[in-house]
Specification:
It is a single chain. The protein has 79 residues and is of the alpha+beta class. Helix content is 32%, strand content 19%. The protein has a domain of 38 residues: YefM-like fold, CATH 3.40.1620. The longest helix is centred in the first third of the chain and has 11 residues. The radius of gyration is 28 Å and the shape is rod-shaped. The N and C termini lie far apart (70 Å).
Length: 79
Amino acid sequence: MKDVPISKFKAKCLGLIEQVHKTRQPLRITRHGLPVAEVIPAGPDRSRKFIGDMIGTAKIVGDIVSPIIDVDEIEAYRD
């Protein structure tokens, strides 16, 4: 990971961000030699793949069609 003083980062911000994007290598920003922030390459864009993300992760166990209690019990709860 490359260290960059905050003053240099401020002066060359766009170029340094482009470098991180192209090289996929993170960049550490320092102030007085101490790390204050890191610029890391963005991961894959998953925001567009919301519908269907959970396909294949659920498992049906048992009967999901029949009522879970008797019809007589349903009538008793209605009163």
